[in-house]
């Protein structure tokens, strides 16, 4: 979370979703009561080191690590929190002071702190003792989260053991001290909230989230007959399709298959963030795909889609909306439709903090296509991302060098290139430099070195050839690049 985002929260003031805590003597019991209340209501943010009036007091530098350690220990202690929680406090520096921001997502289960259930009412954390109030909380969560539905005849035998081990490894790769690493299967399922009790019926067992994440394909097809993701490419044959894959497997492998489908059918454009090359395509697609898998209503008969067209790509999935509107970074409030599945994806590194996907889309889509995305929340949730294969962020951000500068750089290599032919993009300059260093370099090697798709490299090389700047002699395997003379 950025300094600006924290200041925006402080400016909104305390309320249903925001709580300020001084924490002058460390984290005290009232913080845990708010954690419990937020998880039982709609989630929220706790800002430790901020006074009730919004004044940023900050926390002592030397105490921050111990405060976070103690907090994590408390919320993961089943004697204190039931069920336990996995939260990730974040340290944010505002000017010369540091505070701790704790994002508490809405939970699909009812949590208690020291055997007391708390609910959030406006700015207060309220103890829930009346039976009717307790029933309201259970009904609210049960009715809203279909992922909680228990299938009492589904056992560990209907899950895939190799997939369970894979997820343990993924979680350990993200956090080497992750508690899943050494758990038995049943303890792992309980910890991940994939095995729980329905307190309305008394049934205990593996829920829909567990089946969708880790179940065999035949079991998934039996409990969710309409579940599938239809991935389609319509660029040339718009009446039918150029490529198509119908994916019906578990959510983990569905995520991987959809990523591969996108990589096969979309160009990857060069982008340098600081000194690091990042894949705009993979970053954008990851957010779209994780959203369509994590936040859909799985019991709906509507088929989720991932569609790539010439001028746009989009995902559609059924959901239970909180609003009917177009979402923007300004009006968007993080809201997990399936918090168990979303938490699982976060634990294995397939998704980030709730809400970061929206910020990433509005940050990186303009760099990929030159236009903003659209997110529409309704009974069918939709993300639209414009496409423009001719647009390149590096060309837009780095103006073409003057003819004299380009000619000078080429002359220093000992090659005489006509200055009237050298109005080059930055990518083309990089290609020429690689070729100067190694005239036998292949187009594929250039693609790998620059982190740009081979398709885009071929396009740049074709343009250099058409402008009589570059040519190639010899065979494809043993040939070499030659700069054309004046």
Tally of alpha and pi helices = 17
Strand ordering within the main sheet: 12-11-15-16-19-18-17
The computed structural class is alpha+beta
Model regions low in confidence, pLDDT < 50 over at least 5 residues: 396-422
What share of residues are in beta strands? 15-25%
Q: Helix coverage percent of residues?
A: 25-40%
Oligomer: single chain
- What is the strand tally? 21
Largest sheet: 7 strands, mixed
Distance between the termini: 55 Å
Whole-angstrom Rg: 27 Å
Question: What does this molecule look like?
Answer:
The protein is α+β, with helices and mostly antiparallel strands and 486 residues long. Helices cover 38% and strands 19% of the residues. It has helices at residues 3-12, 29-40, 64-75, 131-144, 161-174, 185-191, 208-214, 217-223, 251-265, 280-294, 339-347, 356-369, 393-397, 403-411, 426-437, 443-450, 454-466; strands at residues 18-21, 44-48, 81-82, 90-94, 97-104, 112-113, 116-121, 124-127, 195-197, 204-206, 229-234, 243-247, 272-273, 276-277, 304-309, 312-318, 325-327, 374-377, 380-386, 470-473, 480-483. The strands form six sheets. A seven-stranded mixed beta sheet has the order 12-11-15-16-19-18-17, with helices on one face. A four-stranded mixed beta sheet has the order 1-2-5-4. The longest helix has 15 residues, at 251-265.
């Amino acid at each position: 979370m950025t300094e600006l985002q924290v200041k925006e929260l402080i400016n909104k003031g305390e309320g249903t979703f925001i709580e300020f805590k001084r924490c002058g003597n460390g984290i005290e019991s009232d913080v845990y009561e708010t954690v419990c209340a937020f998880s039982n209501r709609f989630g929220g943010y706790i800002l430790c080191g901020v006074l009730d009036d919004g004044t940023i007091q900050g926390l002592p530098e030397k105490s921050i690590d111990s405060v976070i350690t103690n907090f994590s220990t408390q919320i993961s202690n089943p004697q204190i929190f039931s069920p336990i929680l996995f939260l990730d406090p974040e340290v944010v520096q505002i000017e010369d002071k540091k505070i701790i921001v704790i994002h508490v997502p809405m939970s699909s289960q009812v949590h208690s702190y020291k055997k007391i259930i708390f609910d959030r009412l406006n700015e207060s954390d309220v103890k829930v003792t009346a039976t009717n109030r307790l029933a309201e909380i259970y009904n609210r969560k049960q009715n809203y989260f279909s992922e909680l539905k228990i299938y009492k005849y589904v056992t560990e035998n209907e899950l895939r053991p190799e997939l369970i081990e894979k997820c343990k490894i993924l979680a350990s790769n993200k956090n080497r001290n992750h508690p899943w690493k050494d758990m038995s299967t049943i303890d792992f399922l309980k910890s991940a909230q994939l095995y729980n009790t329905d307190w309305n019926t008394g049934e205990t067992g593996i829920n829909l989230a567990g089946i969708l994440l880790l179940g065999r394909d035949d079991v998934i097809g039996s409990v969710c007959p309409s579940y599938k993701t239809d991935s389609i490419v319509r660029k040339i044959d718009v009446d039918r399709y150029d490529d198509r894959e119908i994916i019906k497997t578990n959510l983990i492998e569905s995520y991987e298959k959809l990523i591969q489908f996108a990589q096969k059918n979309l160009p990857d454009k060069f982008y340098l963030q600081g000194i690091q090359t990042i894949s705009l395509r993979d970053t954008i697609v990851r957010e779209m795909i994780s959203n369509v898998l994590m936040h859909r209503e799985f019991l709906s008969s509507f088929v989720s889609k991932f569609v790539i067209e010439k001028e746009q790509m989009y995902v559609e999935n059924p959901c239970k909306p909180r609003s009917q509107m177009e979402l923007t970074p300004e009006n968007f409030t993080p809201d997990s439709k399936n918090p168990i599945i979303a938490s699982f994806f976060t634990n294995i590194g397939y998704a980030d903090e709730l809400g970061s996907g929206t910020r990433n889309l509005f940050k990186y889509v303009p760099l990929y296509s030159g236009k903003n995305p659209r997110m529409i929340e309704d009974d069918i949730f939709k993300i639209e991302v414009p496409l423009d294969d001719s647009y390149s962020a590096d060309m837009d951000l780095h103006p073409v060098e003057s003819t004299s500068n380009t000619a000078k750089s080429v002359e220093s290599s000992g090659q005489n290139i006509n200055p009237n032919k050298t109005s080059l993009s930055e990518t083309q300059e990089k290609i020429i430099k690689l070729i100067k260093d190694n005239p036998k370099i292949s187009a594929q090697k250039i693609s790998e070195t620059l982190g740009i798709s081979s398709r885009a490299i071929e396009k740049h090389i074709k343009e250099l050839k058409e402008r009589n700047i570059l040519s190639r002699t010899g065979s494809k395997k043993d040939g070499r690049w030659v700069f054309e003379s004046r």
